[in-house]
Write a structure and sequence with these properties.
19 strands, single chain, ten-stranded antiparallel sheet, mainly beta, 15% helix, Jelly Rolls
């Protein structure tokens, strides 16, 4: 009996670091991967293959290659998804705010954080902020150098050199570096939107 108790104690002690690691993955982790997804950290200085539960920190970059998709999860419950040929850099993360830079491609955001928090997503053309629960996407156009911002739930505010624009649910706008496009109704769904809706988290239904 004594041997059994000792063995159980050893097992518990071995499991504690594993649980501690799971609880301290940082503010963000990779929660879904399809295809070739890579990350680049400031320390490594080069790209390496990502895996589920890989912790992410400030300064890290995530790249979804051709045919790939990836989901990033913040501890707050917020999810960020990248479509193929998309790259995102983590600029800052703390308990009540986070900031990212979409270098290229398509990103889908499920923002779910306490009131008073903010998420900001920068592109070469503009900055987009959500201050309350919202679902939105940002698509960068390589050909025309525009950022399209569309909102499915809640609202966001965009800012560039021209000024501010509020975008409500069901609306979208195309922003250039020196152009603040008119707010319009969203068009029909594309494959990227359909995939996100099909894999939407239960709490967002």
């Amino acid at each position: 009996m004594k041997i059994f108790k000792t063995a159980m104690l050893v097992v518990v002690l071995l499991l504690v670091p594993a649980y501690a690691l799971a609880a301290n993955l940082g503010y963000m982790r990779i929660s879904l991967i399809e295809g070739d997804v890579q990350i680049k950290t400031p320390d490594a200085g080069d790209w390496g293959y990502a895996s589920i539960n890989t912790p992410l920190a400030e300064g890290d970059q995530v790249w979804a290659a051709q045919g790939a998709r990836v989901e990033l999860q913040l501890n707050s419950g917020t999810y960020i998804r990248l479509n193929e040929n998309s790259a995102l850099q983590i600029l800052s993360m703390d308990s009540d705010s986070s900031q990212f830079y979409l270098l290229q491609g398509n990103a889908y955001f499920y923002y779910d954080s306490p009131r008073g928090s903010v998420i900001q997503v920068d592109t070469p053309d503009a900055s987009t902020r959500a201050f309350d629960r919202a679902i939105f996407r940002i698509d960068m156009s390589d050909r025309f150098q525009y950022s399209d911002v569309a909102v499915y739930k809640g609202y966001v505010e965009t800012e560039n050199e021209v000024g501010y624009t509020r975008i409500n649910a069901g609306q979208m706008v195309s922003l250039g570096q020196n152009t603040n496009g008119e707010v319009a109704l969203m068009g029909s769904s594309d494959n990227w939107e359909t995939w996100n809706k099909a894999t939407r988290k239960t709490s967002w239904m």
